[in-house]
């Protein structure tokens, strides 16, 4: 009994696993998407190579290419598994059809032998005329006709089964050819993976040679990031203070209006007047920040577009991801509070979502723009020029300024996403 239950459970698990396996069309779509991203990474890598110095953007591009290649190999393996499943199923179908064919041939041979033994017309006539009644004779004629039709159907079933076997064999050969092609494709992808690993090693060696220079760059960036973080914190505090002041003004206006209404209503007694004043007096709780309808709506819209926000630049590459960065082959580590893009100096920087400009400030010798989206704030730093001003309402895709030059016509942009609690988020997870 236990063995039977275990068999049923294993069968169910196998069926569940098979049902979750992506189809061939889905795998082809995945391969196409990987190849498209691979082409983009290659173009980005070609652009980074224009700079003679090995950069973090170049390392990130090579690492991303490795990840994509491994994903491609994984998809090819899934395709091979599907093809092998088709081959195994084809063999099972052929075995089953051959057994059915043997059974059909055996039944047909028996009917042929029987017909041969009773082949004379006399036997057929004797079978009919030996009927006990006319109705019985009609039934015997119908039986002989159905028996003849049965034999013809048997012969047809044999032919159809033989055709099915041949079709299955042809399909099996086609699956074998597909598997062979997929295996060759997998071998090519693995060869490219090895070449790309060597390419990564070369970049790492070049970066190691620049370790001191990179360490200075990281220190400079940490100081720049601290200034930007302080500016963002100041912008958030100002927005909170402004919201509190606005709430307080509204409460005072409401209190004055209530007091005027109470004074003009002479028919109310003093008790009613006192109760009304107590009921309508402004409360300290009313001074809450970012709690107006417009703020809540903007916050909800921003959160709803997580993973679908556009890039702040039309072309470029990520040179440093958000969070802790470890440079392989070196002792260099840094914690990036923003998402750093590398692009051509002078490229236009655009807002990634509708909002209000709450600060335009200098961070060192470059500028930064901070935009409020309800309880969220986005920051755009390392700008050489700015085309918006504080208090201005901006739309998604609207130009904010130009990327400042870092060196050799190469510029960097730091994009940050922060909430009203001054918590930083990984912008890469918000972008499409």
Which terms would index this structure?
single chain, 432 residues, alpha+beta, Helix Hairpins, Glucose Permease (Domain IIA), eleven-stranded antiparallel β-sheet, two-stranded antiparallel sheet, 13 strands, 62% helix, elongated
What's the arrangement of secondary structure elements?
Layout: H1 2-20, H2 24-48, H3 56-117, H4 121-129, H5 134-209, H6 211-264, H7 270-280, H8 293-304, E1 317-320, E2 323-326, E3 333-336, E4 339-344, E5 348-350, E6 355-363, E7 366-373, E8 376-386, E9 393-394, E10 399-403, E11 405-407, E12 410-419, E13 424-425
Helix pairs in contact: 2-3, 3-5, 6-7
Report the helical percentage.
55-70%
Strand count: 13
Order of helices and strands: HHHHHHHHEEEEEEEEEEEEE
- Indicate how many domains the architecture comprises: 2
CATH C-level category of the largest domain: Mainly Alpha
Structure description:
- This protein is 62% helix and 16% strand.
- The chain is of the alpha+beta class and 432 residues long.
- It has two domains: 21-209, Helix Hairpins (Orthogonal Bundle); 212-263 and 294-429, Distorted Sandwich (Glucose Permease (Domain IIA)), CATH 2.70.70.10.
- The strands form two sheets. Strands 1, 4, 5, 6, 7, 8, 9, 10, 11, 12 and 13 form an eleven-stranded antiparallel sheet that branches.
- β2 (323-326) and β3 form a beta hairpin.
- The longest helix is centred in the middle third of the chain and has 76 residues, at 134-209.
- It is elongated.
- It starts with a helix and ends in a 7-residue tail after the last strand.
């Amino acid at each position: 009994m236990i063995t039977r239950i275990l068999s049923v459970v294993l069968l169910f698990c196998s069926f569940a696993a098979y049902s979750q396996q992506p189809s061939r069309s889905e795998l082809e779509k995945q391969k196409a998407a990987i190849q498209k991203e691979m082409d983009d990474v290659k173009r980005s890598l070609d652009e980074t190579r224009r700079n003679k110095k090995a950069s973090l953007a170049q390392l990130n591009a090579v690492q991303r290419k490795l990840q994509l290649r491994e994903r491609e190999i994984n998809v090819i393996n899934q395709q091979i598994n599907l093809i092998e499943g088709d081959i195994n199923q084809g063999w099972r179908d052929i075995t089953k059809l051959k057994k059915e064919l043997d059974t059909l041939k055996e039944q047909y041979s028996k009917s042929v032998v029987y017909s041969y033994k009773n082949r004379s017309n006399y036997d057929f006539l004797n079978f009919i005329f030996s009927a006990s009644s006319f109705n019985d004779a009609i039934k015997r004629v119908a039986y002989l006709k159905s028996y003849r039709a049965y034999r013809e159907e048997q012969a047809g079933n044999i032919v159809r089964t033989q055709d099915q076997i041949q079709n299955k064999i042809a399909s099996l050969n086609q699956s074998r050819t597909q598997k062979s092609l997929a295996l060759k494709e997998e071998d090519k992808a693995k060869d490219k993976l090895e070449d790309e690993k060597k390419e990564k090693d070369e970049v790492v060696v070049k970066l190691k040679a620049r370790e001191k220079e990179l360490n200075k760059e990281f220190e400079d960036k940490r100081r720049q990031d601290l200034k930007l973080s302080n500016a963002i914190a100041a912008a958030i505090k100002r927005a909170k203070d402004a919201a509190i002041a606005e709430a307080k003004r509204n409460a005072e206006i409401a209190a004055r209006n209530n007091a005027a209404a109470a004074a003009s209503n002479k028919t109310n007694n003093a008790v009613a007047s006192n109760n009304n004043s107590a009921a309508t007096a402004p409360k300290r709780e009313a001074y809450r920040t970012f709690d107006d309808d417009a703020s809540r709506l903007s916050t909800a819209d921003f959160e709803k577009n997580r993973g679908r926000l556009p890039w702040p630049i039309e072309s470029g590459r990520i040179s440093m991801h958000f969070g802790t960065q470890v440079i392989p082959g070196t002792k260099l580590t840094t914690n990036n509070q923003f998402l750093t893009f590398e692009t051509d100096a002078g490229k236009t920087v655009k807002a990634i979502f509708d909002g209000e400009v709450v600060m335009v400030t200098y961070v060192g010798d470059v500028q930064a723009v901070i935009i409020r989206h309800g309880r969220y704030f986005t920051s755009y730093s390392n700008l050489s020029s700015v085309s918006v001003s504080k208090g201005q309402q901006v739309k998604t895709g609207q130009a904010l300024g130009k990327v400042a030059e870092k060196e050799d016509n190469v510029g960097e942009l730091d994009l940050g996403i922060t909430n009203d609690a001054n918590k930083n988020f990984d912008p890469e997870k918000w972008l499409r």
